[in-house]
Design goal:
The structure is a homodimer. In chain A, α1 packs across α3 (about 40-50) and α2 (about 30-35) packs across α3. In chain A, about 50% of the residues lie in helices and about 5% in strands. Chain A has a two-stranded antiparallel sheet. The first copy, chain A, is mainly alpha-helical and about 160 residues long. The longest helix of chain A has 18 residues, at about 115-130. Chain A has helices spanning about 5-20, 30-35, 40-50, 75-85, 115-130, 135-145, 150-155; strands at about 55-60, 65. Chain A is elongated. The relative contact order of chain A is 0.16.
């Protein structure tokens, strides 16, 4: 089971857009170049963030992407759901009802006990993702690399 | 992000092997037929369970698969790890270090704050999986469908 690398790209792009500031939209090409990512694929992730209401895009010569709300109001869950979709990782296909193993329909009114147990674990994961905001991560990232925000702004200004 | 359907197959196969009992090895073909699953693919999952030390296989005319320990000693995590492998779903590729965005190596001594935050959520998921045994699930499954164990044993006896 593997999450698409688009999640990592989207998370860092949100952080970079926060560092760029609300008044400086950044194009997908520039965001991609900053970390040597393929621009068309990053653009796809950015469009997913637009659909999720996390970033907005403006067109025109000075257009680009910008965050529509502060990092403190964006959780890891918001970004993961935007990129990976809302479906659960474990999807029960009700094999318990198939073939000679299937019993009377009355036995299947409740969800399969395996599906229930797996969903409980996934809920713990989602809760943890929903409990952490990008602002929490920004604070740690800046503590590790205090020069990072200014490096981005300088690079954008010279672009 | 989607878990392979092999996880569902492996979970139900363990339950079926428990219902079959320790003295009745069951072939992959029979286990597959019971829920109308493709035998070659189920066999692949069963081999993964063998490598993980959850089931054992014996050859010969009366050979097949059997559980090597009680369901109370098999967690959901054991089965998921056997089928999906031990890797984390979110794998940081350190894009923060790539391109103009990369800073001094000293900034990268600690793991990326996003990787850390994602790992924390995944740990919550793994803990929950490790805290639930197949015995917990068996109890619920039998409460829902009390005839299921005997239905399997009868079907195997007539096979």
């Amino acid at each position: 089971m593997r999450m698409t690398e688009g999640v990592e790209w989207a998370l860092h792009s949100c952080l970079n857009l926060a560092w760029a500031g609300p008044d400086r939209p950044v194009t997908a090409a520039r965001l991609a170049a900053y970390h040597e990512l393929p621009a068309p694929y990053l653009n796809k992730q950015l469009q997913a963030l637009v659909r999720a209401g996390i970033v907005a895009s403006t067109s025109g010569p000075r257009g680009g992407f910008r965050l529509v709300r502060p990092l403190a109001q964006i959780t890891l869950m918001d970004v993961v759901a935007a990129i990976e979709g809302p479906d659960e990782a474990f999807r029960c296909t009700e094999i318990r009802q198939q073939g000679p193993g299937g019993g009377a329909p009355a036995s299947y009114r409740l969800p399969c006990a395996f599906a229930h147990a797996m969903a409980r674990a996934e809920l713990a994961w989602r809760r943890e993702l929903a409990g952490q905001t990008l602002e929490d991560v920004r604070e740690q990232a800046e503590a590790q690399a205090p020069a990072a925000p200014e490096r981005l702004r300088r690079w954008l200004a010279n672009g």
